[in-house]
Each structure stands twice: as structure tokens, then as C-alpha cells.
Amino acid sequence: MITIKSILISISVVFFFAVVGNVFVDDALTVWYANLNKPWYLVPLWIFIIVGIFYYIMSGIILYRQINNISESKLRKIALILTISMLIGNELWNYLFFGLKSTFLGFISLIPFSIIVVTLAPKKNRCLFI
């Protein structure tokens, strides 16, 4: 059953993280990133923007399903913590890569972020915790 409260919570949380992440980016996207020496095979920036939009939409859907469709349990709490950690990890990457303008720290921060994403990834049509 779809509940407005679950939808609003999911949208609010994801929107909050998206706004915070953009604060870290500031003008680094148009100035610093634009001047980086990038490989020829790197996709255009507009593709990264589309992927980012889909990331936030999928995060909102994941949060909604965890809030609305799962009965209260220890695994649900773990899944919610991992999902919020994934959102925090993404914004941490924004801060390290764009805010501090560090390709190295941005790369290193992808390791724990990737572990969280793999843990949340579907396993035989189900997330590890859902």
C-alpha cells in the first residue's frame, strides 16, 4: 500500500542529500573539473548528470520500499543504515573530489561506497536485507 508519508520522507531525505552534495561542488564542476586532463574515452558531462539524476531517483525508491514495504526488523534497520550510508558516501565523494579538488581522495572514497552498494544490490531478485 502506497503511503504519502513514506513518499514524502523518501523524497525529503534524497533531496536533502542532493542539495548538500551540490553545495560541495560549487564552481569546481565548471572550473576545476572542466580543466582536468581527461582521457579521450570519458563520456560527456551531461551523461554524468543523467546518471546522477537516476541515482537519486533509485535511492528514493529504495528508501521508500524500505520504509513502506518491510516489516520492522533488525535487517530493515541495517538496510536503512546502509542506504543512508550510501547517500552519505556519495556526498562525501562530492566533497573529496570537487570540494577538496582531489582525484586521489575521490578515488579512495569509492572503495567503501562500492562495498555498501554491492551489499545493497539485489541477490536473486532480492536485496541482501530486503
Question: How would you briefly describe this protein structure?
Answer:
Helix content is 69%, strand content 3%. It has helices at 4-25, 45-68, 74-99, 103-120; strands at residues 122-123, 126-127. The mean pLDDT is 88.
Descriptive report:
The chain is mostly helical. It has one domain (about 5-25, about 45-125). It has helices at about 5-25, 45-70, 75-100, 105-120, and strands at about 120-125, 125. Strand 1 (about 120-125) and strand 2 form a beta hairpin. The longest helix has 26 residues, at about 75-100. The two termini are about 15 Å apart. The model has no long low-confidence stretch (mean pLDDT about 90).
